[in-house]
Amino acid sequence: MEEQNTSRDDNWAKPIDRLAAGNVPAGALDTASGKQVVSPIQGFGKMWQKTYRVALTGSSVTPQELIATWKAEFPTFWPKGSQFHTPLTGIAPGEVALLQASVGGGMKLSTGIFVLYADEESFTFMTPQGHMFAGWITFSAAREDDVTVAQCQVLMRAQDPLTEVGLTLGGHKKEDKFWEATLQSLAERFGVDAKAETTVVCVDKRRQWSRAGNVRHSSAFRSTIHTATAPLRKR
Amino acid sequence: MTQDTQMAVRRAGDGTGVIEISGDITAGSEDALMDAYGRAGDGDTRAVLLDFSQLEYMNSGGIGLLVTLLVRANRAKQRLLACGLNDHYRQIFELTRLDEAITIFDDEAAALAAVGS
After folding, report:
1. What is the CATH number of the domain that holds B17?
2. Is the pTM of this model over 0.80?
3. DSSP string for A23-71
4. In the beta sheet, which residues pair with residue A154?
5. Distance CA A149, CA A42 (A)
């Protein structure tokens, strides 16, 4: 029993003080290294739980097979315009992945994620300081009424007041479309044409004004400078 | 091996409810945990202590449940405390920074002394 528990304990990342990205692809901006991870507790805005689900009706894929494919091919399911740089050793506990997310208007936000947890039926990303939101995203699969259902669940608060405004003015809707499109691409990978369903719950309506100073870590600000000065670096 | 979650609720001194958690905590434990909190946190409860000494396993879904439980406790102006965590889960609380909002004690006696029950 003890050996079994030890094995399951390995599904969790080992303790860290600061993130260190091991793989920084050419052209990517590493705004994650040196940052601490943050949970919804350290965020500023309202706390939301967003659940996106797609049922793979007609597919024989098991939850374990689906999660293995999702981990192995993770970037391929993202909508065009955003990039996810998978760590060299894959999506495994303790790894850091860098990403560029399209935020509209030709702007890309450079940030990263920390793989907090991974087992055969789920994996969880945790965000660093400066990310758009503080929290985690859990990707999972389960059998429900003999159908495999893929799910993405986000538990989050906007990190700072600027991001809270951005999320309110269309950011939430954009994020919802992003994960719905991702799940639909995942379903297509298994030959299923299905619409993703979204459920949004406001877990906590209060904003944590004591966290307003998080704005100093904003990767949105750093990414803006990086994008604006790109022509100068090409000279 | 996944074990069912079991929650035993009792009072410990004035104003403190204790939830003894046994088995696994996953996202599927939501109903059991929220029901236990409803019973432990009623009336004039000022603090709710989560006793993890019989915990077998917790995944990331379980950690997410603790965050939503914390929101409920804060809304009710109650402190949420934890005791009985082994070294591994104490590290998980630190890694996920839950320890900044849920105070961790070695055992129930230390937790009750801290809240004055």
Report:
1. 3.30.750.24
2. yes
3. ---TT----STTPPEE-GGG--S-EEEEEEEEE-TT----HHHHHHHHH
4. A50, A137
5. 31
- Six token digits for residue A198: 């979204």
Domain, as residue range, for A154: 29-220
Q: Does some domain include residue B1? A: no
Give the Cα separation of B82 and B35 in Å (integer). 18
The CA distance from A133 to the nearest CA of chain B, in Å, is 15
Q: Is residue B109 part of a domain?
A: yes
Q: Which domain holds residue B24?
A: 6-115
pLDDT for residue A224: 63
- Number of domains composing chain A: 1
How many structural domains compose chain B?
1
Residue with tokens 């603790």: B66
Give the ipTM: 0.90
Q: CB contact, 8 Å: A203 with chain B? A: yes
Q: Which residues of B touch A11 (CB under 8 A)?
A: 59
